[in-house]
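Re: weekly structure request thread

Next one in the queue (282 aa):
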Amino acid sequence: MAKFRLLHQLLLDQQLIQADQVVRPISISKRDLERVHARRYHEDFSRDRLSRADQRRIGLPATTPLIQRTWLAVGGTLKTARLALSHGLACHLAGGTHHAHRDFGSGFCIFNDCAIAARVLLATGEVERLMVIDLDVHQGDGTAACCCDEPRIFTLSVHAASNFPLRKVESDADLPLQDGVDDQGYLSAIGDRLPCLIDQFKPDLVLFNAGVDPHQDDRLGRLALTDHGLLNRDRLVLDACLRRSIPVATVIGGGYDDLEALVPRHALVIRAAVEQGRLYGL
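Done, posted below.
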């Protein structure tokens, strides 16, 4: 997708990142992918053997570029998580495919990158406890389903209550919001809850899905945040983690608008990360 290329270029043009800070991912291995996804499912997707119904549920055609990007994006989230463990903070310019379940995809999501990264890091002993903070406007049903049997993963979803998916899957903590919640209402809703949950669970790493579809102009949103509200949301999350010396890996999540408006929105979490990184000496 052009979005990822344009986001990379915008960050360079704005001097939020330097070329030597960009790390190219490698595809996730089959072994690690299968810590979450059924072999039959990922093989059917990668060989374009999904039924028409399954393809419609995903909403994307299984083209060769999409297949390659899907495997790379998951590898990128795992790499970002490891970089965060090493450096305190790292950002992925893709990721956040939180509607993917173990044996089916949904809502433009094919493999669940955050669930896979979490399972791998726990299996290798790189972390003992991990939290997924999902602030995409849609509930993280796939992540909740993929992690529900693992008490060392805590899933938090803050989302528009009336939005997709129709059937929610219970996260460890869900914060459903009414349509039309604005900057002030959103930040008030998470301002106290989020730090308390972090203090209770004490994760070794946070995976932060910074979806920009809560924006007031998003075609699939229903909330009413502005650019400034999204930026302050990201600052709040990063500050809550970094002040507790908890590493954070960010993924960009969802966003549905013209690229001219959407790409700068996705850059907001990177701007917040640069600011917070400097404040905390990272």
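Residues 2-17+25-279 form a domain with the Arginase; Chain A fold (CATH 3.40.800.20). Residues 80 and 90 are 6 Å apart (CA to CA).
Next request, please.
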